[in-house]
Amino acid sequence: MPCSSFGDSGSDENGRLRSFKLTESTFLASLMPKKEIAADCFIEAHPEYDGRGVLIAIFDSGVDPAAAGLQVTSDGKPKILDVLDCTGSGDVDTSKVVKTDADGCIRGASGTTLVVNSSWKNPSGEWHVGYKLVYELFTDTLTSRLKKERKKKWDEKNQEEIAKAVKHLDEFDQKHTKVEDTNLKRARKDLQNRIDILRKQAESFDDKGPVIDAVVWHDGEAWRAALDTQSIEDDLDSGKLANFIPLTNFRAERKFGVFSKLDACSFVANVYDEGKILSIVTDCSPHGTHVAGIATAFHPKPLLNGIAPGAQLISCKIGDTRLGSMETGTGLTRALIAAVEHKCDLINMSYGEPTLLPDYGRFVDLVDEVVNKYRMIFVSSAGNSGPALSTVGAPGGTTSSIIGVGAYVSPSMASAAHCVVEPPSEGLEYTWSSRGPTADGDLGVCISAPGGAVAPVPTWTLQRRMLMNGTSMASPSACGGIALLLSAMKAEGIPVSPYSVRKALENTAVPVGSLPEDKLTTGQGLMQVDKAHEYIQKSRDVPIVWYQMKINQSGKSTPISRGIYLREASACQQSTEWTVQIEPKFHEDASNLEELVPFEECIELHSSEKAVVRAPEYLLLTYNGRSFNIVVDPTNLSEGLHYFELYGVDCKAPWRGPLFRIPVTITKPMAVVNRPPVVSFSRMPFQPGQIERKYIEVPLGASWVEATIQTSGFDTPRRFFVDAVQICPLQRPKKWESVITFSSPAAKSFAFAVVGGQTMELAIAQFWSSGIGSQKITVVEIEVVFHGININKEEVVLDGSEAPTRIDAEAILASEKLSPAALLNKIRNPYRPIESKLSALATDRDKLPSGKQILTLTLIYKFKLEDAAEVKPQIPLLNNRIYDTKFESQFYMISDTNNRVYAVGDAYPNASKLPGGEYNLQLCLRHDSMQYLEKLKQLVLFIERNLEEKDVIRLSFFSQPDGPVMGNGSFKSSVLVPGKKEAIYLGPPSKDKLPKVLHSPFFSHLHRSSERVNGACNICAVLSTGVCIARSNLIWKAIIYWSRREEKSPKEPCII
């Protein structure tokens, strides 16, 4: 059945929705877009297929069970079946057990005397107690609001006390005109001190937040929990423990509480480990509730419904409140465990990070198992790092078993949700939506869906719904659409499989854009629920199989890839041959005799451009797979971006469409041959949403770029995204980005670092809604100038002797001014743990579906600060990787000797300000392999601290090797001429300039202590070579490690 139109709208052959006129009903409908993916007409045709019978796991920041539209489904069932904090950020230690006294009171963990409700059943008489600072459960936004409101009330009361104190002093002075008696003097001084103290405490007011007491007990049937929240309430009679309605695990009774009317924050309680842990579950941002609302919200007004109002969900909080909503490995693993335990059909995850290696890591391995063994469909956001290519994030855009979704905006969304003056004439991808391909050539984006909506948000935001946009919103839109398909498949008795559903989505999506390379932006196109449903019905008897591709270049020992990506100039200069291995992939429960043995398909191979991609015509594929060779010839292609596909079609059933696709992406760069190396692009016309991509072979010897962008020909302000991306082996894509707004025609310049010899994509995009109401085209000109000073050392090591270090500098491209400067501004101390403990985690939330119990390795490090300092813990082996690591999780806490926690962190450690004193750093690592964890029992940790400005050491450069000793030949600057190297010498720091911390007794003690790594302390510094040419002030940076040798132990090795 065709979809109904909004007003006079229609759609062209590419499915791009054209402009229209809004009415009240179409306005409301466009706030929660459904027409774009044909979800509205599908439900209209099949009201009972609205997601009923489908369970979705929302991996996100947490879902508020009190939010609008998230209480019941369209058929009256509970909407949310479970609410979990998988991160542990809301955990309360309730291992302490107390009993009531004769008055029915207990002593809470905070020291408060609590009255227990006499009607609560507790056969054992044991009460588990714990406490929590309530701000540790709230988002920064909510905490900020509460602090302002509490500060306002506190100021009012404090001002009253100041007024009383002033009045008392005034009355005293009126009564005692002469104060000569000692007692009277003391009395007056006390009155004055009271005023001074009240004023001073107003200036130094620091609200650490209310403390809530938690009590857990077993009532003979289930574990119960209650909170005492009197410290939050204005009325002291409110929030008492005895008045609290006890909660049990949410999944049992689906009840939640609210801390107070002031915060309006909902929470859920879950009890673990026989009452020893109480998990108080709150959301760490509105993001997760918004995502859940897009996928499944049900309202009395159908226009406000989510995509699948009949679906149910569980909330798996993977964003850690302590880390500002950052996801953690612990949260991700526990969420997968919960999804399997609840037998979910779908997972939506609108989270992600950049990655070093695509389709690799511990989380990827676990996802593969969940998808292939338990038949769950995993949907995730592709990322918001566009418009440049190869910006898809992990896991959504880089993992084969996950459906990665890009973000699309239609004219109706632009008019209603974004309130633009004039909508675009047709739909398009949001400018910031991440693009493929991945570094190993995979398409990256699978499909696209609407990437914006006005959807429910938590009650603590003090509003019912709000607008958000991002691929985070596109993913639940697609997930909701898939829920409709699963609802239909279950009702019609069609087996559910991620393989068959994904194939239906890809082969029925409507293309967005007419160019082949548009697939790198939108994937196979905008998903269409109705057409996918028809495809699934028609293919119900087709074998349920996925086609896995392993590709490598013939004659070269290159890593296995999932596509072909020719990016560098050398790869585009000749034809290359590639070996493709196609392996049919069945679910783990597939029958050998009934499914694997009979599987045989005759496949016809098609190339989208035979002049570039050549392959055999036919292929007979059986269960054990088949390999074949293809030839890619890019030599006759013009400069720029080219995209091709090799795909296989079932000879007997061509209606099935491509069974597999091999993406071939070629970015043929232009060479920079002129000297000085300058590239110009003149009079490029831009309209809203338009992107221009220029591929440049960065000259060897270049290390930075100066670019100038000039605009003209427009009236209203214009907003541009400018990205520069390079891909280097085994590194995350090197990306420089800037968002530039031109209020009037003007020129703007910027500079950024580059890697010589590597292709650079320069992507320039006019933001999709910028200038949308104007009839004038923006004209852009850009000039790119390459500069470079080559230094022979990326890391400069001063070994602690009096000898200087030689550095050779050379300018290859053009004359450059060399003005080096070096600072020693950080101290980096290495430590080994003083204690390590390997143990099995106790709760079921840490047991994998396979039955393996996850283990934890706890490492304790000690360090001391003589004075207050800003410190940053670093673990080189593990830091900066979440998805692309084989280790499951890392988490640290820094506490003092009184167990006060000052800082927490994970894979991305932050600097924290600490007062002077002794500290413990507790590092927890998780995995199910004892072998892996055993190897980390002596893991080295670095504590890096910034030196105070007065302690920063400025090093000197010399033109002669004897300069540091003779005191002459100081080097300030010179002009480097192409073809001629210049040697400079970096002198060691003077001993009298060393910071005090290096001379302190404690430092010397630690230097020889077994707590530290044997060897010297490293001072980490940044060596900056200033370059002043034309408009440039960019610096080249290297790292200096200066080693301070212990004079009493000259034979002790230096570990650099």
TrEMBL record:
Residues 686-770 form the Tripeptidyl-peptidase II galactose-binding domain. The lineage of its organism: Eukaryota, Viridiplantae, Streptophyta, Embryophyta, Tracheophyta. GO terms for biological process: proteolysis. It catalyses: Release of an N-terminal tripeptide from a polypeptide. Residues 181-208 form a coiled coil. Belongs to the peptidase S8 family. This is Tripeptidyl-peptidase 2. Its EC number is 3.4.14.10. It comes from Carya illinoinensis. One of its GO terms (cellular component) is cytosol. Keywords: Aminopeptidase, Coiled coil, Hydrolase, Protease, Serine protease. Pfam families: Peptidase_S8, TPPII, TPPII_GBD, TPPII_Ig-like-1.
